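Issue: copy button drops trailing tokens. Both records pasted manually instead:
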Amino acid sequence: MQNNNKILALIPARSGSKRLPKKNIMPLGGKPLIAWTVLSALDAQLDMDVVVSTDSEEIANIAIEYGAEVPFMRPDALAQDTSSSFEVIDYTLKTLAASGRYYEYLMLLQPTSPFRQSHHINQAFLMLQDLKASAVVSVTELDHPVEWSMTLPEDNALDDFIQHHLAHLKTRSQDLPKCYRLNGAISCGQVEAVLKNKTFYVPHGTYAFKMEPQYSVDIDTLTDFQYAEFLQSRL
């Protein structure tokens, strides 16, 4: 029978991680890390299928325990350090389509962003629909002005940087324009646009969804995880 849900929430969670082994199932606040994303997706007020793509039976069992689907295991070839998100997306959509499950919209939710809330997911999707956008990706404000950032020469001399940025260096941070960075928590878009461009960063019709810094933690290292534990104890 053909699937009627228009939205696929895809949570990619491979087993391998060199910087922080088994990070997707590390316990945070009494739950495995991936459970935070599964639960926020399920709590969102959207009619969508929540699917986890993984090569790990352990991750699959945890995902199912918390309410997600794992309709198939990810092939080893798509679970390497060099495997791209788009390859996983493309494989998932084609595999689901083969069983009669087609989607109009795609929501990519990284399990390494545990503090993204269900209301963020709702708001990002509403933005996608209201603006008739090709895609919406989440961002958060930079901690420090981008004008104070630099690349350094081998001798670490600041002469060139100061020469070109002295006016900015003399300006208070609050008087400089706000700048934002991608935070990796939410990427959503029209399936047709994502497949055509092989990315959520569609050249025309992509919009930024702003998230507060406390919800924008992205866990890649042990330090990131320890910071997440600190925040979670105070949320």
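Record 2 (pasted manually too):
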Amino acid sequence: MSELPEYVLDRTFDASRDLVWRAWTDPDILHQWYGPGVETIIHQYDLKPGGAWLNEMKMRGMSDYSRMDFQEVAEAEKLVWHHASTDADWNVVANPMMPDWPRVLLTTVTFSDAGGKTDVRLSQVPIDASEKEIAVFAEMMSNMDGGWGKGYAIIDELLSQLQS
């Protein structure tokens, strides 16, 4: 496969770029919207290149673990991380709910001013993935809007609270 599928979600938030950045980078806020409808526990959040975000989402009596290794952090402008499913010891493993899901996604989030509001672009691309993993990612991309959309709706509420 020559061209990797890329999931892209563009969204404008009705808040300043600094406040939207805070929603993405303050663990006390992030855990409230990341993984909507489940209990999200952030075990570690070291926001710097080479730092890690260790995340657990509890649902239906089980836990889903993921590790995000920060590649780039440009304050209020850009976050880049490698996003991987892990076991409880934070070792990268196949996703237990979708074994053919790519083990690692390159995630890029950019923030830009939009006349008192903030444009956010989220992009995810499989890296070091097999043909089957790439195919599964491409097939499932259309379903990803739902989860991110629910999280973004919570961000809207949180931003409103933070501004008042």
